[in-house]
Amino acid sequence: MTLPFHDLDQALFARAQTLLDDEWLSKDADLAPLLPVVLARNVGQDWHKAGTFRHHLVGVARSLALWQQPRDVRLLGLLHSVYGNAFVDLVKFDAASERGRLAELVGERAEHLVYLFCTMSRTQFVQRVMAGQIEADGSMVLEKNGQPMLLTPFEVAAFIIVSMADSIEQWFSWQDDIYSQFPQVQSQRPQAVHWAASLWPGPMRPSGRMLHQIASLGLALQHPALKNLLPLPPVFGQCAQPLAASDEAAATSLYWSVIQLDQPLVDLDAATAVLEHAVRHNPWVGEPQMVLAQLYLSAGRAEDAERAATSALQCFSAWGNAWDKRVQWDAWVAWTRILRQSAQQGSWPERLDKLNNLALRG
Fold first, then answer.
1. Angle at Cα 230 formed by Cα 225 and Cα 235, nearest 5°?
2. Which segments of the chain have a pLDDT < 70?
3. Is 82 exposed, middle or buried (0-12, 13-18, 19+ CB in 10 A)?
4. How would you class 188 by CB atoms within 10 Å of its CB: exposed for 0-12, middle for 13-18, buried for 19 or more?
5. Where are the beta strands (DSSP E) in 146-291?
6. 143-160: per-residue pLDDT in tens?
């Protein structure tokens, strides 16, 4: 059975390459002026899920930049939690006294988006998007403090896209457990009883359930009143393809079984077959395809390795963040490029120690 590999979009890959530099944000004319202000609020010292709060804010902004979102949406990504919210008790700007200060820095429209995103019920928003409760004109009604709150179609589209970037940047198995069944969060589980789930960062498995939700959010952007308001993120076939929850769970489990070496350790055919099934279940993330490319190289299957590595590179270029958070996005991209180069050259080290010498050329 043919594997669902992707071709490489050269324009998308070129955009991704510009974001591999750690200093990309300082070169962004829209976002760079905000960087000193945000850093002055000590975001680089605050813990946040798989890294620091700075890592998170920059990672969300990176995906939005890759997805070619307009200035106000990218600013929302960089500042999306600075007033605090129900999920993050990190208040970097006081909404009662500093809204004017932030509006001076980013403009009233961008500040309004940040304020709404921080103060509305994100849980309620995600629930209603996934339930298809978007009005015919693209607007949405939420409840806030017992009163109706109307989001415009632009706000709905922007908040969907930022929610997609926010989730892919931060979510991994630790949150699968402590935020089980989000957005229907089970809040009555005592930490002391479920101490094993609470240990951070846990086994660092990729999420077994969040990509299904991100795909569902993306599908909502196909709403006739939303589709042309903002550029569609280049994931899940331009937000046109679903990912079943069962397929995501199966793919994550199969992938992790190979990573944990829960396969025969002498011959690689079983591990290869398991990863191929993982890719069939979920062809939208790069890590399983990247590992599969290395197995193909080890088996002397250079053509298959090139196809797998090229497809993995396309997936990494589409997201701008890693699905498997054991290493950073730029490291996944770098190793994938090594694999692709080796496949194109028809070479792969025969000795383990020579893997340490590999370098990208050209």
1. 105
2. 86-88, 186
3. buried
4. exposed
5. 147-151
6. 988 889 999 999 999 999
